[in-house]
Description:
Elements: E1 2-8, H1 14-27, E2 32-36, H2 48-54, E3 59-63, E4 68-72, H3 78-84, E5 90-94, E6 104-107, H4 111-116, E7 122-126, E8 142-143
Amino acid sequence: MRAVAVIGYKGSGKTRIAEMLIEGLAERGYRVAAIKHVHGSLKLPESDSARLFRAGAEAVLAVSSEACEFLERRGLELWEALSLVRSYDYVVVEGFKSQFPGYRIVAARTLEEAASFRGPLVLAYSGPVASLEEARSLEAPVIDA
């Protein structure tokens, strides 16, 4: 398993960058998993499985012929989440900016935001900052996606 994180502040384009990365890897035939860091509580859909969870079930597993969804009444550390998807070729991690120990793509709106994530593990910068002429001064490639 190879993992890369897409990190940045809220509204910086992390999800879009993660989507594009996942699409590109999947198109090349790789099996890709994603882990999303959520601040606060999960926003559960208005589905029957969510209703069962809200009713107090400790765990709910919704199963169809195309996908499954598992809700459990406990949080996970990043390393625990990574161990659950270790059989995939790639894992795209969205968020976990201070916990992820590996390579990352920084989504930033401004040069100041980009600079706050500088470091040897940054593979590239993207997001709104990529349209700024001054972004060329950053140490890693800037991708205007």
